[in-house]
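Dear colleague,

As promised, here are the two records you asked about, laid out in our usual form so they can be pasted straight into your sheet.

NAME FIELD: protein one
SEQUENCE, THEN STRUCTURE:
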Amino acid sequence: MAKKYDVKDFRLAQNGRKRILWAGQDMPVLQRVRERFRREKPLRGMRFSACLHVTAETANLVQTLKAGGANVVLCASNPLSTQDDVAASLVQHDKIPVYAIKGEDNKTYYRHLRAALDHEPVLTMDDGADLVSLLHTDYSNLASNLIASMEETTTGVIRLRALEKDGALRIPVIAVNDAATKHLFDNRYGTGQSTIDGVIRATDMLIAGKRVVIAGYGWCGKGVGARARGMGAKVIVTEVDAVRALEAAMDGFEVMTMKEAARVGDLFITLTGDMHVIAEEHLKAMKNGAVICNSGHFDIEIDLKALKKLSTKVEKSVRNFVDAYTLPGGKKIYLIGEGRLVNLAAAEGHPASVMDMSFATQALASEWAVKSRNELTPKVYEVPIAVENWVAKLKLASMGIRIDTLTQEQEKYLSSWAHGT
C-alpha cells in the first residue's frame, strides 16, 4: 500500500502550526472565503491535487479548500521551497496528505508528484506546470475526468499557452497568474521583497552601493528593481523586449546587454522564465566575488553546467545556501540556493499579506471552475473579472481604505457616445 504522506519530521509539527496561524492572521480575504466555503461546501467531494510551494501561506489555502469540502492532497512544486514544519503540521493537525521534504532529490520530487496524481484528482492546482505536464504524459488517462487546473506562475502559464497553441492541451486551465490580483501584487511586491530578503539572509550583503543586475523587467523584475534601488543599489536592467527595456530606462534604470553588465555587476538576479540568461560567456566576464542567483521558477536561468565546467574547485555551503565556484586564475563566483528560486530556497517566500490576494483568487477560481464545469473546454481561461473585483474590494476594506463609486450620471456618460466637445 502506497504511503499516505511523506514529510521530514513530525516533531516539527507544533512549530509549523504556530507558523500557519501567524500567517493566517494576515490573510483576511482568504479567511472570508474560508468562512463561506465552510458554510456552503462548494467543493464537496472534489478530489483535489495541489502542487505548490509548501509554506505557511499555502497551508492556509489548502485548509480553505478542505473547508469547502475538497479532498485535498499537497505536494511540493520545487525541491527547495518546502517548510518542513508546515508540511508536518498539515499532516498531523489537519489530516491533509502532504508529500514534500525540503532538499529532496529529483527522484523523490517526481515520486511525490506521482503520489499527488495517484489521488486521481478532478481538480489540480499547479505552480510551474510540472503536475499538468505529467497529466499530459504518464497520467494522460486522468485528463478526461479533470474539471480544470489552476496555474499560479508566469513560467507555468507560458508552458500551458504553448501546449494550447500546439493543439496539445487536453484540459481546461485557469491562468491565475495572469489575474491582476495576482501578478500586479504577488509578482511585484511579493517577489520584490522576498527575493532581496533571500539574498540578504544568504549573504549578509549590504545592498547600498552595489551594482545589482536585474535580468528581465516583467512584474517580478520591476519589483526587485524597485526594492534594490530603494536600498541604495545602482540597478542595471537587461532585457530582450524593446518595450520593457524602454520602460526600464524611463523608470530611471541603466539598461544594457548581459555581456556588458557581466563585467560590472556585483549581484545578478535572473527573473525571466527562460534558460541560460546567464551563460558561459557572462560567467567568464564576471569579476571576482560576483554573487549570482535566480528568482524564476526553474533552475535553468543560470547555465549551471557551464559554471561547473569552468570551475577548478567547488566549495559547498560556504554560508547557508551559498556555494563558491573558483574559476581559473582564482576568481570566485558565489551561487545562492543552487540556482533555484532564491526567495524560497534561502528565505520564507512572499509575505502572507500579499499571498492573501493570490490564494483567495486561487480558491475562488476553483469554485468557479466547479460551477462552470459543463461549459469548460481544453483551453487557457482568464480569471473572471467578478472574482478579481471581489478580492480587490475586500483587500481594501481589510486595510481600512474606502474608494469612490460612480454616480448614475457618471455611469451613463461612460456608457454613452453622444457627448463630445
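NAME FIELD: protein two
SEQUENCE, THEN STRUCTURE:
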Amino acid sequence: MPRRALVILVSSVVVGAIASAGCTDDVETPVYESGLFPKVAHSGFNKTATFKVMFATSAVNPTWTVEDPSIATIAPSAAPTIPNVTTKGLSFALVTTLKNGDTTVIMTAGSTVLKAQLQVKAYTDEQVTLGKARYENADPSNDPARPACAGCHQKPGGVDHSPLKMAGFDDPTILGVIQNATYPASSTGQSTTSAYAPTGPLSLATHRWNLTDPEKDGILAHLRSLPLGGVQ
C-alpha cells in the first residue's frame, strides 16, 4: 500500500510511568516513528463515569473514524500538554466510549490508511466506587502497603497515570506496575505519542501496593476514567 513519507522525530522525553522515585517520571529517549499510536488502546465504560483515550499520528491532515460508532465517538483534538514532550508534527484525536466492546480506529491521510484497536471493558457501579475509594483513601490501619494513590499522584508534579499515558497498556501490565513495581521484561503496550514502551523495574522499587481481588478491577476502572492529563 503506498504511504506518504512521514517525518521521523527524535526527542528526549520524560515518559509517564505510574510511579517512580520522588513521584517524578523516569527519563527515556524514545524515537518517534511514523504511524498511529497507540496500536491498541484500552478503556472502559460505565454510565456513571466518563472514559476517554487519545490517539496520535504523524500523518499530515488526518481524518478519523471508528469502525463501530456505537462503541465510541472520535474527534480531532488539540495537542495535549505533556511536560518535556514535544508534540510538534503530531495530530491528535480524542475518543469517548459509549459502550463496551472492541472496535477499530481508522486514520486516513491521503493514500495512507492506518488502523489501531480500541478495547472497551464494562465496569460495574460497585467497581467504579471501590476503585475511587482505594485510590483516594489510605487504609485506616495505616498499612504501609495500602497508602492512598492520590497522596503521591495528585500532588503538583505527580506522575500522570491518566489514560493520556496509560491507555496503551493492558490490565496485567498496569497491575504489575502497581503491585510489583515493574513493567514486563519484554516490550508491551505503547505510548500515546510514539512506539515507546517501558520495560523492567521502576526506579522506585518500593512501589508495591496491596490490592484486594475486588480492588483490582476497581482501581483499573478508576485509572481508566481519570481526566486525561494535559488535555484542555
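A couple of things worth noting about protein two: The chain has a mean pLDDT of 86. The radius of gyration is 17 Å.

Best,
R.
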